[in-house]
């Protein structure tokens, strides 16, 4: 059986990439809701409706587990999804906990970036309240990165000015870590690194999510059942056009380079 991956768009490819590297003998399907991306500006009810529609489709593809590789969708719907479906559903969470735990310098701060939806949702707010006893966490929405990535825009001359403008008001020397709380943002790790002081750690929740997936599959005795095949769907339509498939291939190649 396959493992299902879902995202509002292409951001979840960053998580799928780590899953393929860690579990190369599994088969995968990747569902991008390209007709409705981005989810960030939408209401919670809109997001939940879109997510449940996608989940109904993915479950019909005979999957043994589903990764909601989207922080916004996780924030909006993960609890309700687990009530409805009996198969394991693994969600995403901004890496606030490891960022706080690794922060040994009480004089340093942590910057959490995500969509505006994720940042304002109760799920993340409760997590920060629980962990941030020293009040060192700052929040920054970066919706432009979602738009750039969905246009397959990775030109530094275009993206770097946007990041510089958004980070301008922060004294980055005061920060210990920056959390990439949207899977789309991980496509731009190399550009963040060019703008951040060398001591600032860049964290996302991708590897932790994949390790959790692998642990669950191991407990189910369901590891390594395939051949590494990946099937892509755009809002329920199988991607068979060579041009579209080449775009996904290039995303994997970009991640290979920036994760070296």
Compact summary:
The protein has 11 helices and 10 strands. It has 260 residues and is an alpha/beta fold.
Can you characterise this structure?
By secondary structure, this protein is of the alpha/beta class. The protein folds into two domains: 2-92 and 206-258, Rossmann fold (3-Layer(aba) Sandwich), CATH 3.40.50.1860; 96-204, 3-Layer(aba) Sandwich (Rossmann fold). 46% of the residues lie in helices and 18% in strands. The protein has eleven helices and ten strands. It has helices at residues 13-22, 44-59, 71-84, 96-102, 116-120, 122-131, 143-150, 156-167, 189-195, 206-219, 242-258, and strands at residues 2-7, 28-32, 63-68, 89-90, 109-114, 137-141, 175-180, 201-204, 230-234, 237-238. The strands form two sheets. It has a six-stranded mixed sheet with strand order 4-3-1-2-9-10, sandwiched between helices. The chain has a four-stranded parallel sheet with strand order 6-5-7-8, with helices on both faces. Helix 1 packs across helix 10 (206-219) and helix 2 packs across helix 3. The protein is globular.
């Amino acid at each position: 059986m396959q493992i299902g991956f879902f995202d509002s768009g292409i951001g979840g490819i960053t998580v799928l990439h780590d899953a393929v590297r860690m579990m190369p003998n599994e088969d995968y399907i990747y569902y991008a809701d390209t007709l409705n991306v981005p989810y960030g500006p939408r209401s919670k009810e809109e997001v939940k409706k879109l997510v449940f529609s996608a989940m109904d489709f993915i479950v019909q593809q005979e999957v043994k587990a589903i990764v909601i590789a989207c922080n916004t969708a996780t924030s909006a719907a993960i609890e309700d999804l687990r009530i409805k479906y009996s198969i394991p559903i693994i969600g995403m969470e901004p890496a606030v906990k490891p960022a706080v735990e690794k922060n040994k310098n009480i004089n340093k701060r942590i910057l959490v970036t995500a969509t505006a939806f994720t940042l304002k949702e109760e799920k993340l707010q409760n997590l920060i309240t629980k962990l941030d006893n020293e009040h060192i966490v700052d929040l920054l929405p970066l919706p432009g990165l979602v738009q750039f990535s969905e246009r397959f825009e990775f030109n530094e001359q275009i993206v770097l000015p946007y990041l510089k403008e958004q980070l301008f008001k922060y004294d980055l020397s005061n920060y210990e870590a920056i959390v990439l709380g949207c899977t789309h943002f991980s496509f731009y790790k190399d550009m963040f690194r060019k703008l951040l002081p060398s001591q600032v750690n860049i964290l996302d929740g991708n590897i932790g999510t994949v390790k959790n997936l692998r642990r669950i599959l191991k407990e189910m005795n369901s590891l390594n059942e395939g051949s590494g095949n990946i099937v892509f769907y755009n809002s329920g339509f199988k991607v068979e056009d060579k041009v579209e498939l080449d775009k996904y291939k290039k995303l994997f190649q970009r991640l290979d380079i920036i994760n070296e």
